[in-house]
Design goal:
about 160 residues; eleven-stranded mixed sheet
Length: about 160
């Protein structure tokens, strides 16, 4: 139990370089009365949708207190939401859904960044413009769902990823 408590403080230190975590996931109390944060989500942002487009990407950074798996995302702003990856194959950048989700190692930062793993919103119901917000509900194998409110805008340096902590 002491190990989990130490890990719960570690992500806060690692995320402080990018500002305070915007959203802290569900917590629980261990046998010693310590409050443990299960999932920390920071720096969530979704790109605006140009006129006529109903697809956009969202980025964020995650830290889980213990090993887990980020399996899916839901949003009232789009009927289809997928976790995607981008990687080079045969000298071409390829994008595809990640089957089975993204593994989370306890205490380690997982970055969803431009050109890497990201969340795709398909069939966006209303155009997204700078200053709007998008609700995202992140689902995990073990941790409770975490709902965050992402700002609509351009990704910042915080979304370019930061060192694992």
């Amino acid at each position: 139990m002491k190990r989990l408590f130490a890990l719960s403080a570690l992500p806060l230190l690692g995320l402080s370089a990018c500002g305070e975590p915007a959203n802290i996931g569900n917590t629980y109390t261990d046998a010693d009365g310590n409050t443990i944060t299960q999932i920390i989500v920071a720096d969530e942002v979704c790109r605006p949708t140009p006129n006529g487009r109903q697809v956009t990407a969202c980025y964020l950074n995650l830290v889980a207190a213990a090993d887990d798996r980020h399996v899916s995302v839901e949003s009232p702003d789009a009927p289809r939401v997928q976790i995607h990856e981008m990687k080079m194959e045969s000298n071409m950048m390829m994008m595809r859904p990640i089957e089975g989700g993204v593994p989370l190692t306890g205490g380690q930062v997982v970055n969803f960044t431009p050109g890497g793993n990201h969340i795709m919103l398909n069939g966006v119901r209303e155009p997204l413009v700078e200053g709007d917000t998008v609700e995202l509900t992140l689902k995990f194998d073990n941790a409770p769902d975490v709902t965050v409110t992402a700002r609509v805008g351009q990704p910042t340096e915080a979304n370019e990823g930061f060192p694992n902590g």
